[in-house]
Amino acid sequence: MRGVTAMVFRLLTLAITLVVLASRPASALPTMIRIGYMDCASCHISPQGGGPLNAYGRGIDEAQSLRAQDYQPTPDRRLTHDVRLVLQEQGTWNGQTGTNFFRPRLMYRNATNLSRALRVSAIVTAEGADAPRPALSYDPAARPSTLFVNTALLHYRPRESLEFAIGRDQLPSGVNLPDLAIYVRSRNRLGYYDAPTQLKMYWGAKRYHVMPFVYTAGGNEPAGEAETGGGTLAEFDLLGHSRTVAGLTVQRGTASNGDRRMVGAYARVGFGRWGVLAEHDITDRTRNGPTLAAFTQAATYGQVFWAVREWLVASGIGERLTVDAPFEQRLAAGKAEIAARLSSQATIVVGVRFERNLITRRLAKTAVVQTAFKTVK
Fold this sequence. Notes:
Helices cover 9% and strands 53% of the residues.
């Protein structure tokens, strides 16, 4: 009971602090599809998103906050960088037991133009608490680090619609959600500490973009898990108004301990104040051991979101995971979440998640508050 009381106290303290100071990291989420942003390239310096904003993106960032005001974007600079403080308090209860987890995180993000066509980018994180991808019976956890280089890339952009990047980063993903704990990310090696070395290309136009990539080990994988492979992500705006995007992703990876072959389909749809994000991935896997184990994993994600205000977005989320024998798992999860962008520098996200093990019938309940502050617009 003391653990629950401490959890509630911390949640209230974080919420009150935000109101007084007036935070999920303030990134261009896939929910931007509802106002006609097909992908991340319009607002982010990197077309994959997740890094510093360009001049246009900084204006949109301010306009979509609670304190929205007139903003004149400054020209893109040679050096664009920011510092972010992210605080997450999470409590999970399963039957009569419960655990609390507080994770502070300090991030430095940088994009530096070397010329009109060349730039370098980096994201370095100092961790207050480790949060590795969970170890599974068929997939060990990635190796955590107190100081972790999430991104270190050299970019070459010969023209606006074409870019090549080489270095260390997360692999491209379908709906590109920031929550790395969801099944379509955590079970597909897209967790926080998964940052392989890769070469990728972004080729885009008004109604489509394609992102092929090849990759190899990032250096922090457990023994036998250093994976080499490649894949492609491709998506198309079905109706031509940048609000109905459907995509396909394929990937193949090989490692000493086993191989993966994944195919997935996803969609981002938005009109006015509401929208839908959906993804379904099927992965055929093998695990090497005394005998070869071959099995299939299927992960499904669905989210309906509603912009109560431009700065306030509520979501209902459903998930499903199925893993075949000999590593059989059947999980279903639901989540309610609300995200408030109080300013272009501060955001708060509050969520409650329920996960049911369909084999054991056990129910786990999780409450999360995440706040984020950044130093620059």
